[in-house]
Write a structure and sequence with these properties.
This protein has one domain: Trna Endonuclease, Chain: A, domain 1 (3-Layer(aba) Sandwich), CATH 3.40.1350.10. A 6-stranded mixed beta sheet has the order 1-2-3-4-5-6, with helices on both faces. A hairpin with a 4-residue loop joins strand 2 and strand 3. Helices cover about 35% and strands about 40% of the residues. It is of the alpha/beta class. The radius of gyration is 15 Å and the shape is globular.
């Protein structure tokens, strides 16, 4: 299994505070003889509907040497995981979890705004210090 992001446990706590149940701490996806690991699998039950909502969460800290390289890697993983889940678990949606400061400072730049306009990327924005989700972007 790959190494966990520095905010892995923080996002678990934030999701649990938001009413989610973590079902997979590293969700394994296999196609042929290759496997990949999404950071988290989670589900939330809605009593009124009596059916579960399921998500997969890829957590990114954006602490590498290049924010652009981190974005390229995150987007590649997001597309790969979305494609696999669309075929294997179509009820599960993929989200990219990013710290609030990255969303505020980097995702407001023109290159990220272009990405958000042109590509369907679901985001979970979280506040690491408070271990809370501040925004869901669908």
């Amino acid at each position: 299994m790959p190494a966990k992001d520095i905010y892995h446990d923080t996002v678990i706590i934030a999701l649990e505070k938001d009413g989610w149940k973590i079902t997979d701490d590293q969700l394994k996806l296999t196609v042929g003889n290759r496997s990949v690991y999404v950071d988290l699998g989670a589900e939330k039950l809605f009593a009124a509907e009596k059916e579960g909502r399921k998500i997969a969460v890829e957590i990114k800290s954006f602490i590498g040497a290049s924010l652009i390289r981190d974005l390229e890697e995150a987007l590649g993983q997001y597309v790969l995981y979305s494609s696999i889940l669309e075929e294997q678990q179509p009820e599960r949606l993929v989200y990219l979890a990013v710290p609030q400061i990255i969303f505020r400072d980097f995702f407001s730049e023109p290159i990220c705004q272009l990405l958000m306009r042109r590509t369907v990327v679901r985001l979970i924005v979280f506040e690491p210090e408070k271990e809370e989700i501040t925004q869901w972007i669908h």
